[in-house]
Amino acid sequence: MPSVTRVVLAEDEVLLREGLVALLNRFDFTVCAAVGSAPDLLAAAREHQPDLVLTDIRMPPGRRDDGLRAAVALRADRPQLPVVVLSQYVQTGYAAALLDSGDGQRVGYLLKDRVAEVTEFVDTLRRVADGGTAIDPDVVRQLLHRPRDPLAALSAREREVLALLAEGRSNASIAGRLHVSEAAVGKHVGNILVKLDLPPSDDTNRRVLAVLTYLRADAAS
């Protein structure tokens, strides 16, 4: 990622949009365009070819999931385009749709409340721009606390590890959070991938597929 990350921002609430622009400018992001509708987001992203797209889900003209659909369309054009979407509520189906777009990586789904936690918010944007995946912890908890067949074989500890994986954490970060060794985390991750019957691939892709497995199951329930 370049030292200055170029961002296209889409948010229809003027005060929040201007606040996000000011915040991004403080932390070495350059806002190429700040727009208020999904069609304008599509046009701006295709014109500026940014390093990151940050968008609200509910946008004009429909004020439903127009922002999300625009983000998915942009990732159809550029599968590796980093995208972070903001939502007022926990909507796991939207998270699943986003993770299903493009190559399944470089995506983030955050609740708007997280914007107030400035350091965490900025770190999440940088992580996604660097190729990571970040799902809001409230979304992860809602998904993992409801039993679904694809996750039935996972132990309680494996579910904890999967929740932290979905937040985009590394093995070292997970080990620190759970107060266990990195080797133990690696073993849990390996067990999760085996129990979810994921095809052999590189570790990054298999982690994303693990997240997709339970998001898809939730969206279908």
UniProtKB/TrEMBL annotation:
What SMART domains does this protein's entry cite?
Answer: HTH_LUXR (SM00421), REC (SM00448)
What is the protein's given name? Response regulator
Q: Give a yes or no for keyword Transcription in this entry.
A: yes
Response regulatory domain span = 6-127
Modified-residue entries (4-aspartylphosphate), positions: D56
Q: Does the keyword Mitochondrion apply?
A: no
Which parts of the chain are coiled coil? none
**A Pfam family matched by this chain, by name?**
Response_reg
Question: What's the source species for this entry?
Answer: Micromonospora parva
- What are the HTH luxR-type domain coordinates in residue numbering? 147-217
Query: What are the record keywords, sorted?
Result: DNA-binding, Phosphoprotein, Transcription, Transcription regulation
Q: Which residues form the signal peptide?
A: none
